[in-house]
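Researcher: We're teaching a course module on how sequence relates to structure. For the next exercise, students receive a sequence and then see the predicted structure as tokens, so they can try to spot secondary structure elements on their own. Here is the exercise chain.
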Amino acid sequence: RDHQLDQKPDKVTFANSNTKEVMVLAHRFSKNIIRTRQLLMARTIQAIGAGFGLGSIYVHMGYGTRGAQERAGFLAFTLTFLLTSSIEALPMFLEERLILARETSRGAYRVSSYVLANTIVFLPFLFLLATLYVVPSYWLVGLAPNYSAFLFFLLVIWILLITANSFVAFFSSMVSDFIMGNSLVTGFMGAFFLFSGYFISKEYMPKYWLVLHYTSLFKYPLEALLVNEYTSVGDDKCFGPIYADRCLVSGEDILAASGLTGENKWVNVIIMVAFAITYRLLGYGVLCFKLLRRRQ
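Model: And here is the predicted structure for the students to work with:
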């Protein structure tokens, strides 16, 4: 037996199936989120407060040139706020990583079960946060007044939170402490904002920075929300001066000037989902590599 162990030092057997492991871990993660009352309450109050607060600032923004500018500002600030607030989950991921390293090294469960259970548990929690923010802010601001546009807005915000959570989870698997993780995540978030195309147009960016433009977590949700708003607001709404009873700038004109069409709406959602899955898989790969090296 000792000879066999020496031949295969990294061989780990598991007592339970993947499904059983995911169920048990999901139950444990749910308890951890509920027990972390400070983070839970802080994120809940933050979402509600930001929804009502931002809604009261942009309340009934209207249309015309001012309405177009305020819409872009509201959407940009919404994405900035939600992406940066996701950094708060970094300490939780770092603390769980220590437990993960100890338990997986002894064959308690698979790393894949841990990543899958963690993802499943966060989905309803992030949906709750998205709902608490979107419900008051959307109707107070006065965005496109139909429920299909509202549901799409909620969907994009939910996927955005999932993507940001996956992004933070990926970096938590790489860094050694909170200070380094916070610095890296904040730095990348700032780069995503800068190269999203909102502050600097893609045409004016040096080609060697375009990779950050196309990998920006800020670019695709912003474009999806802009398309959703200006294609759902109605043909009778004008976002510019009116000359001889004729609107000179419609919602379609704004989208055309930005190089956007109705097709970008769902394409960008698919790209956002791909980002969320990719960062989860990258985090899984880093964890597997580190745990394997630790066993060796």
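Model: If you want an answer key for the exercise: The radius of gyration is 22 Å. The first helix runs from residue 2 to 7.
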